[in-house]
Design brief:
single chain, 3 helices
Length: 86
């Protein structure tokens, strides 16, 4: 790989080392309701990314089949009745 790639990777790693503590500190300053809202928004975005990924990989699938596949992936391939077995 090129030297430029390694420099960009090193810059990214440095940025992560400094930005993660700042982000965590910002979350700690938030009210519980704000953290909950952020978390729920993150879940919505992650689900939307998964939906779009399934659509890209299976362009001929119906919306119903796309949604069923996303549900299956979110459950980790488990059937609904298997999720709550003790």
């Amino acid at each position: 790989m090129s030297a430029a790639f390694h420099l960009r990777t090193a810059d990214y790693a440095d940025e992560q080392r400094t930005s993660i503590p700042k982000t965590l500190a910002a979350y700690r300053r938030m009210a519980p309701q704000q953290r909950l809202e952020r978390g729920l928004r993150f879940i919505q975005l992650a689900r939307q990314f998964k939906i779009e990924s399934v659509r890209v990989h299976h362009p001929g699938w119906s919306e119903e089949k796309v949604q069923a596949e996303v549900r299956r992936r979110v459950r980790g391939g488990m059937k609904p009745e298997e999720l709550y077995q003790v």
